[in-house]
Amino acid sequence: MTGFHLNLSLLTPGHFRQAWRLPHVDPRAHLDIGHFERLARAAEDASIDAVFLGDGPALGPGIENAPGTGLDPLILLAHLSGSTDRLGFVITSSTTYNSPYNLARRFNALDHVSRGRAAVNIVTTATPAAAANFGLDRHLDKETRYRRAHEFLDVVTRLWDAWEPGAVVGDRASGRYADVNLIHAIDHHGEFFSVRGPLPVPAGPQGRPVIVQAGGSEGGLGLAGEFADVVFTVAQTRPKAVAFRQDIRRRAAAAGRRPDDVKISLGVVVLVSETEEEARRRERELHGTLPLETLAAAVIADLGLPADAFGPDDVITVDDLPDAPPQAAFSVGFSESTRALIAERPMTPRELVHRSAGGSGHRLLVGSPARIADDLEDWFRAGAADGFTVMPADTAVDFENFTRLVVPILQERGLFQKDYPAPTLRERYGLPRPRQATTVRPPLTR
Amino acid sequence: MTGFHLNLSLLTPGHFRQAWRLPHVDPRAHLDIGHFERLARAAEDASIDAVFLGDGPALGPGIENAPGTGLDPLILLAHLSGSTDRLGFVITSSTTYNSPYNLARRFNALDHVSRGRAAVNIVTTATPAAAANFGLDRHLDKETRYRRAHEFLDVVTRLWDAWEPGAVVGDRASGRYADVNLIHAIDHHGEFFSVRGPLPVPAGPQGRPVIVQAGGSEGGLGLAGEFADVVFTVAQTRPKAVAFRQDIRRRAAAAGRRPDDVKISLGVVVLVSETEEEARRRERELHGTLPLETLAAAVIADLGLPADAFGPDDVITVDDLPDAPPQAAFSVGFSESTRALIAERPMTPRELVHRSAGGSGHRLLVGSPARIADDLEDWFRAGAADGFTVMPADTAVDFENFTRLVVPILQERGLFQKDYPAPTLRERYGLPRPRQATTVRPPLTR
């Protein structure tokens, strides 16, 4: 059995954002590098493929109630690459608020210093708070953001490819260091960017860092089909996940790629304890921390329903829903995922908040280690995913409970690797090394 | 005796860029993280304050002959912060090709994850090659670059200060995480930037990362007086260095700061071996690698002299020089430094290339460990500097020769620390923690 991949989210205090209120949690843990170093070691001891961090460059709403966005993930994970040997790093970066040259160069550097363990999770960033930190009165509309993201990835991948193998000659006797005929300017002039290139140094061990894509809108899916090595997605129901995976594989084929060259990593929030009873007790405890009214209102708004139409315990049926997710939804993927849940069975806003892990949007999976392993195995065997991005409900407990209790079961069943089978993340995911399309480029001239 | 600080440059293969041609040097060492990890450990074992990397976001000229700009230094040094405990990191970043919000956030993160060991070396980047990677037809003129740098640092320092102490409340019982009256938007609207702020997280252990400034032009000196904690500078002659230090201290006082609150770190290229003879032999060997004609032509151009007026062995006197460094000089600081050398004694372009470490522009210091230590002590006691940024001539040899052979002498003389006296770089440099000017800011509203 191949292709079962596991990433673990480092989000702290957890995907239940109010987990900081529990007595065993340090409310400042998201600023404590010692905390992250412990998690990274636990992940590496369990042969986890990569750790993951989401991001948005702004102080989000709700800081009164919980820590939101944390430390810049590129810096945090570059640091962790220095205290680990095999663990991979999936780092969320915005195509709207970075320049492609800087981003290409930074991930090139991370690929070198981590010896092939770098992945970039491309997002377009949809919040007005971020726009205001970068000189924009309001954030770009979705269509424009994805057009920019497309051009951005085109530039970045060409920069990563611009040194052909053999460009570094290093002939001591003649003093010839490099063959400039094998180092290409990209001379890009597009709608959003003009970039001459090349990068100052050749590609790292992966050729290109792994590209992860997380948006579920039409623009995001188009980007995924063309550029993504891994698609990080959300699904509350198995049929929806299976259909999504088939759709992405079709899109990759339509873009001239092999369907197996794009992997689906399904997000799932995990709350796991040694016994079912203890897991349920902890679930009740976490639910007790939630600001239910606020979260219920957010769920209702994301479904496109009127703010005062449903109380927390009023049942929503599929007939109550509008024909499609609202344009203003925070995320089309999350909104569609919630709709699928209601289509299975009518639910109250309170249930929806609980089932989506306190409003994180992802499916909540609670129970004993065997129950968690059974669930992941079932979804995997049903073709719902090539692997999972596991998001701890309460990171202080569930991160290490997952690595210590669930991973060994998956390993014993022959589903998950007992050791790292290859040094680079790209090889471990079973992804090809992209070929370089060098022939179309002009040689570097100065 | 306090105030003798030592930084070490990681530039690879060395400040003699052609050092890669020597038989013991790996021509790809600048891409090898193992190489940098060994250097970082050697530096930390010697209680070196910080390692340093210059930078420019472009493939520079001369890749035919030598590796130029290397890996992105922010990523490389963030990685090294994960495999060291006490060593500081001085990382060159461009104010012209970064956005202030991203830069402020990344150095805030580095300060957290390194536990107070982050310093940013601010440069404005003067090369057309960099401009072409960021959508500019030609690079901004110097005056505009420094006006932008000034506004940039104003924004960055205010972002670093925007969370007042005590803003994180973390009251588990009430669920109140933060006091929004102590977290301030900066609401900046200037000539170059509009930035709302604040950062998503509070300041790190240093309050603000250390700010280093390296430009010797009038714009750079103005910036140094107002913002710099450390000024990194070049001088070929001691009187020039003493005068420069006095000038910077006066500028700091004029900006309302204490003169002792800005430290001068003087660049010096070091070639050191156990014996004087061996050092001289290695110097001849390194000189043999130089493309002398090219480097002599560059020196002549930087002095503002006609290209064909002087051969490599024609003597240049002070009377040959124009009244001031040319506007087109790569660096005013380097050009003035070379002028001072010629004013001391007439010299040929060949001598100038040798004395400036193969065209690096900095003073070359060659000899036995005792000779190197004597020189640094003399310059320090003369008031030429508060410390040195030591740049290995051939990094594969001189980095560890310096830490292993020269540092112990400086320690025995009571000049340099035998152990790290404080955890943060700011404290070790003897710099104050800047006070936060919170009263002028509007409270954060959403």
TrEMBL record, chains A, B:
Keywords: Flavoprotein, FMN, Monooxygenase, Oxidoreductase
Domain of life: Bacteria
EC number annotated for this UniProt entry: 1.14.-.-
Main enzyme class: oxidoreductase
Record-linked Gene3D superfamilies: Luciferase-like domain
Single GO MF descriptor: monooxygenase activity
Residues making up the signal peptide according to the UniProt record: none
Domain Luciferase-like stretches: 32-384
SUPFAM superfamilies (UniProt xref): Bacterial luciferase-like
InterPro entries: Diverse_substr_monoxygenases, Luciferase-like_dom, Luciferase-like_sf, NTA_MOA
Region (Disordered): 426-446
PANTHER family, per database record: ALKANESULFONATE MONOOXYGENASE-RELATED, C2H2 FINGER DOMAIN TRANSCRIPTION FACTOR (EUROFUNG)-RELATED
Family (UniProt): Belongs to the NtaA/SnaA/DszA monooxygenase family.
Name under which the protein is recorded: NtaA/DmoA family FMN-dependent monooxygenase
Organism of this sequence: Streptomyces endophyticus
Taxonomic path: Bacteria, Bacillati, Actinomycetota, Actinomycetes, Kitasatosporales
